[in-house]
Amino acid sequence: MALPSYAGPLETFWYYAFRIFCGVVFIFLISPLLIIIPLSFNVEPYFSFTEGMLAFDPDAYSLRWYEEFFGSERWMNAIQNTFIVAVCSTILSMILGTLAALGLSRSELPFKGMIMGFLISPMIVPLIISAAGMFFFYSSLGISQSYLGLILAHTALGTPFVVITVTATLSGFDYNLVRAAASLGATPTYAFFKVTVPLILTGVISGGLFALMTSVDEVVVAIFIAGAEQRTVPMQMWAGIREQISPTILAVATLLVCMSILLLSTVEYLRRRSETIRGITPH
Amino acid sequence: MMANTVEAEGQLTPDEQKRLTADMHRSLRRKKIRAVFLVAPLLIFIMVTFVSPIATMLFRSVDNPQVSEYMPNTTAALAAWDADSNELPDETTYAALVEDLVVGRENHTIGKAATRLNYEKSQMRSLLTGTARKAGRLDPPYKEQLIKINAGWGDIDNWRVIKRESAPYTLSYYIAAFDMETTPSGEIKMLPEQQRVYLKMLWRTVWMSLLITALTLILGYPVSYLLASLPMGIANTLMILVLLPFWTSLLVRTSSWIALLQGQGVINDVLVWFGLVGDDNRLSMIYNATGTVITMTHILLPFMILPLYSVMKTIPPSYMRAARSLGATPFTAFFKVYLPQSVPGISAGAILVFILAIGYYITPALVGGQTGQFIGNMIAYHMQSSLNWGLAAALGVVLLALVLGIYALYSRLFGSNNQMTLR
């Protein structure tokens, strides 16, 4: 999209104005994530830069808030809870979602549109409504304030992502490969695990990562249906921001940004791998 | 269809043909059953863990058990009383009331009925609980004594409220959710202007969501255009700047905006340092509507850029060049050729951002202060603080209806083709 040589002054102006505008938007997008990294090393209990920090005085920086984070039983407990809930709900989402996507991709399935609508409804309904409804319902079943309740809730919120990514992967799936396997004597089960699974695995895993992220980041439903014992990292952050702002929050935030970089790279890697496998070359 | 072909060739006897048709039907049915069995586990799971909670909420918004359950004798006695008769109920009703109050006080349940009635008419709570304390010491006949204890028992309007709310189902939570009230005579009318809360809140939620949607479109459109027209390598690198916020926790982004926008925050510090604003005159950009709009625009911007980008990626750049070569100015070429083709992306992005924005709760609660709260915060308030769950449920149903309505309209206009599926 280089500027053509015949461009007039007005067009040249617009060309640069447009690029500068885009640059500003990119800065707007990324600067909040970058700004918390130096702030989390602040030696003072403030949310802003001290003079010492601006002068790059090493004494103005410290690992104080990280020590506080790793030394806090509450936070460590929260990490453990987040981990338990996220892993269980992700595995459940991946199994249920993949099976459903396999069914949805078959042309014989009746009421496909309606079923799809129900299956992705947790993604469309505002979280506050899901949270309120789950609070009423799970309390009446006696599973609110329990790991089971939280895991079931997060599984419900995570499955739409798996259903959508796996259905998308299956839409480009060549069923002749399964037929070929069958014609060579493979049983349906064998063909499924040796042919279908490797081909849709990237879709399953990236859907699973979306589900994982949903659970790790989810706070609305958690504050409604989890008890003090199931307190997750987002719940602890929510309480921390509301009660008193300490840079410990920023230390946690920095670690979470690092985690999202890791997740993003994994998803991007999977996406490219899947494109290569399916023979779609990047253009 | 295949059976017909075979028949035309006349190679099968009718018997064989029938068997073949039956076989095919059976095979088709087996395939259908297999597909249903694959979908069934998740469908059942979602029905139980997600759809039934929503249905419970629908039920909660009209459910009205408190009075009939905790004041059963009064409810039964009032059934015979004509609320329009302008006469107080008879002695049997008063006797039933005393019985309910005494039992209710023993079981600590009278407070629930009192709270329920207080939603309809203030002072009902103190009327019931206050009388309940003394009811145990009374002897019949009760009518005179009760009116002496509290003149409220001589007020026909109070009895009308009790009779009305002794019905097992009620629309009164919806009436409250729309800033209306039922007068003692049973008429439904709007509350006085200064007492209206929820419609105002709903309206604010809608227009702030529209504003946020417009802002994400204004910021996101040029960026998506740039990303779609740059060479793959550079575009992929710049895409990280969009995807990284997308993958970062909502709470992380909200707390970093607190660090940026607050009075002693980074942006104000920079402005003071440059001398643009005075140190004692720092801008208040957070804990108000501005804070909510800025933060939510940042959080939702990737949801606008991603669908826009995926649509723009499919628009061949040669179209614009063709328009230019035919004499169109860059502006005409853009508005006549490019923009119309990007409409599916605009609509998908806008609907996604708007639907997400309208249901927001966390960000307005943290950075919204008084003026930046959304209807979601009202629902949370009634769920957690005021414990008026019926009203919370009714507000939730109103919000849900709004979201589903918009979604249905969108599917109708643009087809249910899933641009909404993130990428």
TrEMBL record, chain A:
<keyword id="KW-0813">Transport</keyword>
<keyword id="KW-1133">Transmembrane helix</keyword>
<feature type="transmembrane region" description="Helical">
    <location>
        <begin position="150"/>
        <end position="170"/>
    </location>
</feature>
<dbReference type="Pfam" id="PF00528">
    <property type="entry name" value="BPD_transp_1"/>
</dbReference>
<keyword id="KW-0812">Transmembrane</keyword>
<feature type="transmembrane region" description="Helical">
    <location>
        <begin position="190"/>
        <end position="212"/>
    </location>
</feature>
<feature type="domain" description="ABC transmembrane type-1">
    <location>
        <begin position="79"/>
        <end position="268"/>
    </location>
</feature>
<feature type="transmembrane region" description="Helical">
    <location>
        <begin position="83"/>
        <end position="102"/>
    </location>
</feature>
<keyword id="KW-0997">Cell inner membrane</keyword>
<feature type="transmembrane region" description="Helical">
    <location>
        <begin position="114"/>
        <end position="138"/>
    </location>
</feature>
<comment type="similarity">
    <text>Belongs to the binding-protein-dependent transport system permease family.</text>
</comment>
<feature type="transmembrane region" description="Helical">
    <location>
        <begin position="219"/>
        <end position="239"/>
    </location>
</feature>
<dbReference type="InterPro" id="IPR035906">
    <property type="entry name" value="MetI-like_sf"/>
</dbReference>
<protein>
    <submittedName>
        <fullName>ABC transporter permease</fullName>
    </submittedName>
</protein>
<keyword id="KW-1003">Cell membrane</keyword>
<keyword id="KW-0472">Membrane</keyword>
<dbReference type="InterPro" id="IPR000515">
    <property type="entry name" value="MetI-like"/>
</dbReference>
<feature type="transmembrane region" description="Helical">
    <location>
        <begin position="245"/>
        <end position="264"/>
    </location>
</feature>
<feature type="transmembrane region" description="Helical">
    <location>
        <begin position="13"/>
        <end position="37"/>
    </location>
</feature>
TrEMBL record, chain B:
<comment type="similarity">
    <text>Belongs to the binding-protein-dependent transport system permease family. CysTW subfamily.</text>
</comment>
<keyword id="KW-0812">Transmembrane</keyword>
<keyword id="KW-0472">Membrane</keyword>
<feature type="transmembrane region" description="Helical">
    <location>
        <begin position="289"/>
        <end position="310"/>
    </location>
</feature>
<dbReference type="Pfam" id="PF00528">
    <property type="entry name" value="BPD_transp_1"/>
</dbReference>
<dbReference type="InterPro" id="IPR035906">
    <property type="entry name" value="MetI-like_sf"/>
</dbReference>
<feature type="transmembrane region" description="Helical">
    <location>
        <begin position="346"/>
        <end position="367"/>
    </location>
</feature>
<protein>
    <submittedName>
        <fullName>ABC transporter permease</fullName>
    </submittedName>
</protein>
<feature type="transmembrane region" description="Helical">
    <location>
        <begin position="35"/>
        <end position="59"/>
    </location>
</feature>
<feature type="transmembrane region" description="Helical">
    <location>
        <begin position="258"/>
        <end position="277"/>
    </location>
</feature>
<keyword id="KW-1133">Transmembrane helix</keyword>
<keyword id="KW-0813">Transport</keyword>
<feature type="transmembrane region" description="Helical">
    <location>
        <begin position="387"/>
        <end position="410"/>
    </location>
</feature>
<feature type="transmembrane region" description="Helical">
    <location>
        <begin position="206"/>
        <end position="227"/>
    </location>
</feature>
<feature type="transmembrane region" description="Helical">
    <location>
        <begin position="234"/>
        <end position="252"/>
    </location>
</feature>
<feature type="domain" description="ABC transmembrane type-1">
    <location>
        <begin position="202"/>
        <end position="410"/>
    </location>
</feature>
<keyword id="KW-1003">Cell membrane</keyword>
<dbReference type="InterPro" id="IPR000515">
    <property type="entry name" value="MetI-like"/>
</dbReference>
